[in-house]
Amino acid sequence: MEALKGRDLLSLADLSAEEMKELLDLAAQLKTHQLSLRCNKVLGLLFYKASTRTRVSFSVAMYQLGGQVIDLNPNVTQVSRGEPLVDTARVLDRYLDILAIRTFEQEDLQSFANYAKIPIINALSDLEHPCQVLADLLTVQECFGTPDGLTLTYLGDGNNMANSLLLGCALMRMNVRIATPAEYQPDEAIVEQAKKIAQGNTEVTITNDPEAAAKGAHVLYTDVWASMGQEEQANARIPIFQPYQVNEQLLSIADPDAIVLHCLPAHREEEITDAVMEGSQSRVWDQAENRMHAQKALLVSLLGAD
């Protein structure tokens, strides 16, 4: 995908619908076919937040492409001693070919993108998690053939996952319903952006009614009720979010062929029951594997490959 070569991916809104479709098709191809980068490229991982799937999937993807990975733990770099982001960005730009950042503020990603010429990837921020949604949509595509016209229902906290699902589903002409408690809705600006992308061709719904949102849905999706940095609020949130639990009753009113997704890690018996997560309609483990394939397609597209 020459159109993406050298670009940043800070948000799914950085992609057109056609670019998103091409990325997913490339990811599906790479899942069964090996591809090598033209030369020995180096991916840097600058992660301010804990990570299992993102760290390992990016690393394995880059190694399988023939590249190398440097883990830039902020605690052992000058970042931890207060070096300005713009200085770090300009130095890393001289060493690396591409940089994936997992951080808190979306503005930090933009600062890196402004001062580094290499591609910058949002590997998670408090606002968005675009790489996860690429894997999610790849999983939906594998299960249904195409996301076009399907309905995805997300239940729980209107967090970075809800935000990126709004954008990703709108780009892929997939109906998206976000069901959250009234005070935990997704970012208003992203909701409006998703509606603009959808252009009235698909449904973008924000609701407080979990059953109405789940009715007839082809995908039920959830995430933890307290994200990283919100752990102290976890116990207080449980009674607020309990009606949004993905359980057998809620799954029974979805489409009979519905699948269940969770971006992990999961708090079983909180946002999702163990029976549903381990049930026949769960695609959680395929979804987790697809992080690697989707990110491999992203790396190939941003770096260029044979």
Tally of discrete structural domains: 2
Let me know the CATH homologous superfamily of the largest domain: Aspartate/ornithine carbamoyltransferase
Give the proportion of residues in helices.
40-55%
In angstroms, what separates the terminal alpha carbons? 11 Å
Q: How many helices in DSSP terms? A: 12
Topology:
Layout (H helix, E strand, L loop, with lengths): L16 H14 L11 E6 L5 H12 L3 E4 L13 H11 L2 E5 L3 H10 L4 E5 L5 H15 L6 E5 L4 H12 L3 E5 L8 H11 L5 E4 L2 H5 L4 E4 L11 H8 L6 H5 L6 E4 L11 H4 L6 H20 L3
Parallel strand pairs: 1-2, 1-3, 3-4, 5-6, 5-8, 6-7, 8-9
Which features characterize this protein?
306 residues; alpha/beta; Rossmann fold; 4-stranded parallel β-sheet; globular
Brief overview:
By secondary structure, this protein is α/β, with parallel strands linked by helices.
3D structure, described in words:
This protein is an alpha/beta fold. It folds into two domains: 2-128 and 291-303, 3-Layer(aba) Sandwich (Rossmann fold), CATH 3.40.50.1370; 132-287, Rossmann fold (3-Layer(aba) Sandwich), CATH 3.40.50. Helix content is 42%, strand content 14%. The protein contains twelve helices and nine strands. It has helices at 17-30, 53-64, 85-95, 106-115, 130-144, 160-171, 188-198, 210-214, 234-241, 248-252, 274-277, 284-303; strands at 42-47, 68-71, 98-102, 120-124, 151-155, 175-179, 204-207, 219-222, 259-262. A five-stranded parallel β-sheet has the order 7-6-5-8-9. Helix 6 links the parallel strand 5 and strand 6. Helix 1 (17-30) crosses helix 5 and helix 6 (160-171) runs parallel beside helix 7. The protein is globular, with a radius of gyration of 19 Å. The model has no long low-confidence stretch (mean pLDDT 95).
